[in-house]
Amino acid sequence: MKFSGLRVIKEALTGHKGWKPLWRDPAPKSHYDFVIIGGGGHGLATAYYLAKVFGKANIAVLEKGWLGSGNIGRNTTIIRSNYLLPGNQPFYEFSMKLWENLEQETNFNSMVSQRSIINLFHTDGQRDAYRRRGNAMKFSGADAELLSQEDLRQLAPFLNFDNARFPIKGGLRQLRAGTARHDGVAWGYARGADMRGVDLIQNCEVTGMKIEGGKIIGVETTRGYIGAGKVGVAVAGSSSRVMSMAGKRLPIESHVLQAFVSEGLKPTIPGVITFGAGHFYVSQSDKGGLVFGGDIDGYNSYAQRGNLPVVEDVLEGGMALMPMIGRARLLRSWGGVMDMSMDGSPIIDRTDVDGLYFNGGWCYGGFKATPASGYAFAHLLATDTPHETATAYRMDRFARGYVVDEKGVGAQPNLH
Ligand SMILES: Cc1cc2nc3c(=O)[nH]c(=O)nc-3n(C[C@H](O)[C@H](O)[C@H](O)COP(=O)(O)OP(=O)(O)OC[C@H]3O[C@@H](n4cnc5c(N)ncnc54)[C@H](O)[C@@H]3O)c2cc1C
Hints:
- This protein is 27% helix and 26% strand.
- It has two domains: 5-78 and 182-251 and 343-415, 3-Layer(bba) Sandwich (FAD/NAD(P)-binding domain); 113-178 and 253-341, D-Amino Acid Oxidase, subunit A, domain 2 (D-Amino Acid Oxidase, Chain A, domain 2).
- By secondary structure, it is an alpha/beta fold.
- Strands 1, 2, 8, 9, 10, 11, 17 and 18 form an eight-stranded mixed β-sheet that branches. Strands 5-6-4-13-14-15-12-16 form an eight-stranded mixed β-sheet.
- Its main location: cytoplasm.
- Its cofactor is FAD; FMN.
- It comes from Tritonibacter litoralis.
């Protein structure tokens, strides 16, 4: 079914009887050429591009819960390509270009909204670093502009400009950045993959990997054994757990990250704003709620919920940046499990097990990467060569000393 305004009108006039489920609910087959473990954004996008761009068939996505139950449905929905390093910037700009056409491509309303992001700076040194970042962005074809304090006073008068400790001196803006409806992204890719024959199998947890003579030949699941030609792992917060089934130990730790939403307010926040002197970022949803977050909880966990000290820490950041947030009531908060890599950058690579491929280490930046990550992983699975924008994301970079340390703050997950 093609979605369109006309279709909505037709269904409205005929009692909404024509809508169909967005995807089938098939039973698993005994063998697939490609098995993707993980029905989050990255797994679904991988299956979609494998079928659509690389013309592959006989593909399954195995998801232990329901599609979109992981971080893809838990993040704060920010998309941007304001990275500095050569290993990162072209990849995230590629992702941004895919975002810009995503809804037309998948014929699904994922509410991609290029409402901009502003990273605030508070010192002269930080301004220089942001100017450098902006120049690097422009080199890879992205947009960037430096805003003065006067510009910001016009755009966001509610900010605490004259805070004695963290005066706001200006900001780096990317106008093409913004937000997208996170679960709508999962549903759009799922529907697109299903339409191209991909079997999306929910409630199907992978519990083991069958490896013979150094080659993976299938996976054990809660719905029985499934044979596989190639297996791609895209399980985000469960990366270490799933890869241990193949005897692998990853340079990744799992940590909780929380997000928060306030009661609905009138339109206030112009796009996404990030605090440069602490870890706090905020946007406003189309329903009016302020959507914000900050640091990870700082201890290893597989629980999809966080603890109160970080709630306090995040809200302190919010109060320092925009004291009026103290008048808003917090509506809800939740957590997701982040796959924190030791340099803050992802891994998209083959493994030394023939036919086993890995995609993970997204830390808390993987939502914006969803389209490019899916595309690059599909490229790797289909051609056995890395996509041109993802060549830095090799597993062995930690052993070889070629880390992609975007923030330059050291190999500690609690500093990223
Ligand atoms: C609170 C929060 C805020 C965030 N904010 C942002 C943001 O603003 N911008 C941004 O770019 N990123 C953000 N992120 C990060 C982003 O959400 C993740 O990096 C990204 O979603 C991870 O990729 P994914 O969508 O494939 O993960 P997931 O949706 O977690 O997908 C992995 C899937 O694998 C499944 N799985 C696990 N184990 C197995 C198994 N054994 N068998 C079968 N299936 C299995 C899980 O059930 C899950 O559905 C945020 C994350 C959180 C939690």
